[in-house]
Specification:
Layout: E1 6-9, E2 14-15, E3 18-20, H1 25-37, E4 41-45, H2 51-63, E5 66-70, E6 75-79, E7 89-93, H3 98-111, E8 114-118, H4 129-137, E9 142-144, E10 153-155, E11 169-172, H5 177-186, E12 195-200, H6 206-218, E13 224-226, E14 230-233, E15 244-246, H7 251-262, E16 273-276, H8 289-295, E17 299-303, E18 306-310, E19 322-323, E20 326-328, H9 336-342, E21 346-347, E22 350-353, H10 365-375, E23 379-382, E24 386-390, E25 402-403, H11 409-416, E26 427-430, H12 442-449, E27 450-451, E28 459-463, H13 470-481, E29 484-487, H14 488-501, H15 509-516, E30 521-524, E31 527-530, E32 533-534, H16 542-552, H17 555-566, E33 574-578, H18 581-585, E34 591-596, H19 599-612, H20 619-635, E35 648-651, H21 657-671
Parallel strand pairs: 3-16, 4-15, 7-8, 11-12, 19-21, 20-22, 25-26, 28-33, 28-34, 29-33, 34-35
Antiparallel strand pairs: 1-26, 2-27, 4-6, 5-6, 8-10, 9-10, 12-14, 13-14, 16-18, 17-18, 22-24, 23-24, 30-31, 31-32
Helix pairs in contact: 1-2, 1-3, 1-6, 3-5, 5-6, 9-11, 13-21, 14-15, 14-16, 15-17, 19-20
């Protein structure tokens, strides 16, 4: 997951390959709670790993459930509470997880005990009054600890075991389907008689109630319903563990990849983009997003457990790839957000109706979506329960800006699709880590599937002499931006290391070049991996440094490593350090920096490094060695060490690494169009 302040996405042109979806959030947290309410053990397969599910698992453990995770086969075993929490005086912090706050409130209120439920600031702004009113009808004592109608809540133990179950429980249907879901999951715990629920008004988001009813049936609870106005939990209903249950892929998450597959003209390429983990057998309402996407022009084939997105029809030059729609989105409230961004690519004005529930989600999604779409050049009309979206009329009308995500995972994922814009503009997503709520690896997954023109993938080059601090600065900048990092000096060390390991004389330039041409190297987690082995320390000796300096002077070795180094230019961007990154390897880099320091300062730094590793050396000896190496590097015939044209000079002799990083980030911001 990108744990950074912002993520810049270069202009994207296509997607290809296959994506395996994470588990459904709606199903995952329902299954976890249902498993907890049963007697015995339930093994949950393919559970979504996210902030929301972690919140639920932690809460269940606090209540006394035994939770065993097996990362090898992606399962979680839940030892249920058999209808009674082991601990009945607990403070549960539930973050911004509505799928935990609402059902836990109902279940714990009916089970009885002293519980306090709270969350982040936004959770305390999300209404829960209608659910609390329904529970109070039953005789559950609940207090608001803050604003009336909103969390945090205090649930009190009942002074009597008598619940008022003889009258129908009334709940509004036009606020949030999670309130009804919470009641449906909690009431079987006290079903000593038939329990009736009456829905007041029209029920929104009925597909989510269908998910709840389907899962309840798998756990032995068969709810009877008369349309969507009256639902009955039969007397004697009792939770029974299914033993094991599989979580299907998340249909809302699938919508982003369906859209990505539909946003570009695949011309004569008749391959398809495949989405695994979801298909015709889905119990999620958001699978109907497929129908909406088809109305906009997407070509999608549904199979039992996969979707295939095929090329769009050929369009005339300048014609938008999609067609505008006017659609009631009550049945796909979460996935409809993806339609709003797809509207940017549609011919005509798209109208999304019956989406009032957006206002009580992680943020007020109606206002948020309207605001961010306008930043990209769209004309948007925001109504009480609808959006009208007219896209930019031509590529020249597209604009770009930092996209606010409002701590809302779906805002971040939806607007990543704006990177496919016809104006080839980059998109900045603020607070990208918010996707952790449902899809922590979303951006990594997107970048593994998406293609961009090589020249569009940004590169920052940081060149300079030995011991100038290039590696420290470059890796820090890469971390701040969420970019890949290339330590080109490590490649020369690796080439010498690998050649020596295979008995090749380092004077044999052709032999070393042959090894260098196919180095199986990866930079990951701050370490250097060669053929799957961590060689970070092995290549950082003084001896390795001298060997690297020797082989780097061979034109054959430099030529062999040229394509390897350029292959590190990958989405979302690259920070590369070395001695010829800006002059030879990436001459088109958008920012080139020549980092230097006096030989005295560099010698002092190297001396501290050696002393910390238990090596002894004099400052004078180290300084003489650095100056001699500088001279060799500057005088070599192949790619001599020198500042690249237009490189910004940064002397960090008396500048801290923190200030150097801020300076580079400031220069980088000056190259961005935001």
């Amino acid at each position: 997951m990108f744990d950074i302040e912002f993520l810049d996405i270069p202009p994207l042109v296509s997607v290809s390959g296959k994506v395996n979806l994470p588990g459904s959030k709606s199903i995952s947290n329902r299954v976890l709670l249902l498993a907890a309410l049963c007697k015995g053990t339930t093994v949950v397969h393919d559970l979504l790993e996210s902030d929301d599910t972690q919140v639920m698992l932690t809460a269940l453990e606090q209540l006394g459930c035994t939770v065993e995770r097996n990362t090898d086969n992606n399962t979680v075993a839940i030892e249920g509470l058999a209808g009674r929490p082991v601990r009945d005086k607990v403070h549960l912090f539930l973050g911004n997880a509505g799928t935990a706050m609402r059902p836990l409130t109902a279940a714990l209120a009916l089970l009885g005990g002293e519980f306090e439920l709270s969350g982040v600031v936004r959770m305390h702004e999300r209404p829960i009054g209608d659910l609390v009113d329904s529970l109070r009808q039953l005789g559950c004592p609940i207090d608001y600890l803050g604003n009336e109608g909103f969390p945090p809540l205090k649930l009190h133990a009942r002074t009597t075991n008598q619940l008022l179950l003889n009258q129908p429980i009334r709940v509004r249907g036009d606020v949030s389907s999670q309130f009804l879901t919470a009641l449906l999951m909690a009431l079987p715990l006290v079903a000593s008689r038939d329990i009736h629920i009456e829905v007041v008004g029209d029920l929104i988001s009925t597909p989510y109630i269908e998910i709840t009813l389907n899962l309840l049936a798998r756990f032995g609870i068969h709810v009877q319903r008369d349309g969507w106005q009256r639902l009955t939990i039969p007397a004697g209903s009792k939770y029974t563990s299914p033993g094991s249950i599989h979580v299907e892929g998340d249909a809302s998450s699938a919508s982003y990849f369906i859209a990505a597959g539909a946003l570009f003209d695949w011309s004569t390429d008749h391959k398809y983009f495949e989405i695994n983990g979801l298909g015709t057998n889905s119990i999620q309402g958001d699978i109907r997003f497929v129908e909406a996407a088809r109305l906009m022009g997407a070509h999608i084939e549904c199979m039992p457990n996969a979707l295939q997105v095929s090329p769009c029809k050929e369009k005339q030059a300048g014609q938008k790839p999609l067609t505008a729609i006017d659609l009631d989105c009550n049945h796909i409230p979460d996935a409809a957000m993806t339609l709003a961004v797809m509207a940017l690519y549609a011919e005509g004005t798209t109208v999304l109706r019956n989406i009032a529930s957006w206002r009580v989600k992680e943020t007020d999604r109606l206002s948020a979506m309207a605001c961010e779409l306008r930043k990209l050049g769209a004309v948007v009309e925001e109504g009480p329960d609808y959006l009208k979206i007219t896209p930019p009329s031509s590529p020249a009308e597209w604009t770009t800006a930092p996209i606010c995500t409002y701590d809302d995972h779906r805002m971040a994922m939806c607007f990543s699709l704006a990177a496919f814009n016809p104006a080839s503009l980059p998109i900045r997503i603020l607070d990208p880590k918010c996707v952790g709520k449902t899809f922590p690896d979303y951006f990594e997954t997107l970048f593994s599937l998406a293609q961009a023109k090589s020249a569009s993938i940004p590169v920052i080059c940081i060149d300079g002499p030995t011991a100038s601090g290039k590696g420290t600065l470059s890796s820090a900048v890469a971390h701040h931006l969420g970019y890949h990092y290339l330590d080109s000096g490590a490649l020369y060390r690796l080439a010498a290391f690998a050649a020596s390991a295979q008995g090749i004389d380092l004077n044999d330039s052709a032999g070393v070049a042959k090894i260098a041409r196919h180095l199986p190297v990866k930079f990951k987690d701050g370490k250097v991996w060669l053929n799957g082995q961590d060689v970070s320390l092995a290549i950082r000796t003084e001896e390795s440094g001298m060997a690297a300096s020797k082989v780097s002077a061979y034109p054959e070795v430099r030529a062999a490593l040229l394509m390897l180094q350029r292959s590190f230019r990958a989405l979302p961007g690259l920070v590369a350090d070395g001695r010829d990154m800006g002059t030879v390897i990436f001459p088109d880099a958008e920012l080139k920096i020549y980092l230097t320091a006096s030989s005295v300062h560099r010698a002092q730094r190297r001396h501290k490094q050696l002393i910390s590793k238990g090596n002894s050396a004099t400052l004078q000896y180290i300084q003489q060695g650095l100056e001699a190496r500088d001279e060799r590097d500057m005088l070599r015939s192949s790619a001599p060490l020198k500042p690249a044209e237009n490189a910004k000079l940064l002397d960090n002799s008396d500048v801290s690494i923190e200030k150097s990083v801020l300076k580079v980030l400031d220069w980088w911001q000056g190259t961005r169009p935001f």
